[in-house]
Amino acid sequence: MALYSISTFFHLGLLVLFANAMPSLASAKTHYHDFVVQATPVKRLCNTHSTITVNGQYPGPTLEVNNGDTLVVNVVNRAQYNVTIHWHGVRQMRTAWADGPEFVTQCPIRPGGSYTYRFTIQGQEGTLWWHAHSSWLRATVYGALIIHPKEGSSYPFQKPKRETPILLGEWWNANPIDVVREATRTGAAPNVSDAYTINGQPGDFYNCSSADTVIVPMDAGETNLLRVINSGLNQQLFFTVANHKLTVVGADASYLKPFTTNVIMLGPGQTTDVLITADQPPARYYIAARAYASAQGAPFDNTTTTAILEYKTAPCPAKGGASSKPVNASLPKFNDTATATAFTTSLRSPQKAEVPTDIDESLFFTVGLGINQCPPGANKATTCQGPNGTRFAASMNNISFVLPSNFSLLQAHHQGIPGVFTTDFPAAPPVKFDYTGNVSQSLWQPVPATKVYKLKYGAKVQVVLQGTSIFTAENHPIHLHGYDFYIVAEGFGNFNPQTDTAKFNLVDPPMRNTASVPVGGWAVIRFVADNPGTWLLHCHLDVHITWGLAMSFLVEDGVGVLQTLEAPPEDLPVC
After folding, report:
1. From which domain of life does this come (predicted)?
2. Which of 286, 316, 326, 417 lies most in the core, judged by the most C-beta atoms within 10 Å?
3. HEC states along 261-305?
4. Residue 472 CB neighbour total at 10 angstroms
């Protein structure tokens, strides 16, 4: 009898365990979306352009999911250009085929073609985004990807009354594809943008724009969560709201220890979640963003985009006259590196972080610009319009990354196709030099190649990202696909392992997917290589990735199905 009751209790216990597990299984949903990439007439700055959009929307649709949900997005390409979509910051555990960078994890979706991206959000909450990852299409092909906590769980801060995605963008009075093609032809820097935008609108300080300035409504006393995304192509941005404090609570879909500031800085690719409370006299207040431009002497778009935070009890603009004019916002100077640094060095994880120690792979990557001499026989006047008759380039460890064209890196790896890439990307610069000093011009010309760095599954990796002053030093937002990483330290000048290792924060460093490498400085990141596939590491200034500021990790399969890349989908595009 006793034996019977023990076994009954055991089965009852299992049932209870299973029942407790059921709600989380049951509440995970699959969301289906159709993205039609197409040319759409879009009027900005007094001119109408045939703009590439998703579903005719600029910016594209906001996707909202819960942690644990699955997304199935069928992308149909009705545009004249090749396209892919990248889900920026999504871990893509074992689903590298859905990551999206052209010729890295897939061949592009050709005009008239389609591809279905399928992936599950695992253990991520906060603000991410999606964008095209082919040429410069992401100038207008982008949107927010909002990940709410699992059903039944909540934010680690008081639930805001409302939430507003704020997508910062860049607009050209031209076709962005023509802008990059012209730069590639001439070897010169591409034209800078003509406006910045908030949710697709330039705002009050541009021609033909104020009628469509974005309004963010708030009730007095309420708290709003602003999900700020820098979806600009080539420019770091300062962001502020006139007379209001911003409480930073997350970045790149990882929670942060809350802190209060007047201004935040985001490099392209980065997201920051801030709480804002309507605790000022009821009125209209400018929400504003403008450039943080750290490259000395380099041209940049020196304009300011605005939206309006509007208290619902504020006087109507039509009736209020001068009193209804929005309160002006104060932004740092364009070259205010001190403010940018004060912000990035304030980020902390909310509790003790599981930072990898006992590092297996200690890597040192230089990141910066380069100069290619004019090729023999080229017409200098038309094809070598860079500095002193040269062509601009960029590199990591002096390798200027060349995308393959007949196969993606992932296909070549998975199918064992030879000749697409080599696995000899250097673990350190081939030549040591004074990286941020006066660099000899003999070191300015990088080597073009398609090289990857192999990582064993489970390897604990540290990468020192060292900026260089070749041609000019500047802040580089470096993004790693398929991973989050801890930023354990950053600093200026050349990284010195003897003295700088002591500055590592191994307790509560922030977790991100895009690191701002300081101008003329360095940042150190750590991660565990627990996701098999080919994963691009690149500067998120698209002008720099065009010039070759990228490399790819190849993370090998581990043991068993849960440590192995899934089989490629049937509809994976062919090259």
Report:
1. Eukaryota
2. 286
3. ECEEEECCCCEEEEEEECCCCCCEEEEEEEEECCCCCCCCCCCEE
4. 16
Pairing of strands 30-44, 70-77: parallel
Specify whether the CB–CB gap between 326 and 314 falls below 8 A: no
Q: Can you read off the two tokens belonging to residue 193?
A: 């943008």
Six token digits for residue 164: 């507003």
What are the angstrom distances between the C-alpha of 281 and each of 260, 285, 552? 20, 10, 51
Spatial separation of the C-alpha atoms in residues 117 and 132, rounded to whole Å: 13
Cβ-proximal residues to 164 (8 Å cutoff; 6+ apart), any chain: 216, 224, 225, 226, 227
Buried-exposed string 172-184: b where 16+ CB fall within 10 A, e elsewhere:
beebbbebbeebb
Q: In this structure, are residues 234 and 541 in contact, taking their beta carbons and an 8 Å threshold?
A: yes
- Split at pLDDT 50, 70, 90, the class of 25 is low
- State residue 313's pLDDT score: 87
Secondary structure (H, E, C), 100-153:
CCECCCECCECCCCEEEEEEECCCCCEEEEEEECCCCHHHCCEEEEEEECCCCC
Query: Could you give the dihedral angle defined by the CA atoms of residues 417, 484, 264 and 193, in that order, rounded to the nearest 10 degrees?
Result: 10
Over residues 356-397, the pLDDT tens digits come to: 999 999 999 999 999 999 999 999 999 999 999 999 999 999
CA dist., res. 489 & res. 451, Å (int): 27
153-197 pLDDT, tens digit each: 999 999 999 999 999 999 999 999 999 999 999 999 999 999 999
Hey, what amino acid is at 548?
Answer: G
Q: Please state the rounded mean pLDDT for residues 188-215.
A: 97
pLDDT of the residue at 458? 98
The 3-state DSSP class for residue 348 equals coil
In the structure encoding, which two tokens stand for residue 338, read together? 């001190």
Instruction: Give me the amino acid identity at 486.
Output: Y
Q: For the chain, what is the mean pLDDT?
A: 94
Structure tokens at 433: 């030099």
pLDDT tens string 405-458: 999 999 999 999 999 999 999 999 999 999 999 999 999 999 999 999 999 999
Helix, strand, coil percentages in the chain from 3-state DSSP, rounded to 5: 15, 40, 45
**Which tens digit of pLDDT belongs to each residue from 319-353?**
555 557 999 999 999 999 999 999 999 999 999 99
Q: Tell me, what's the pLDDT at 355? A: 98
Strands 246-251, 399-401: pairing kind: unpaired
What is the rounded CA–CA span in Å between residue 345 and residue 186?
A: 39
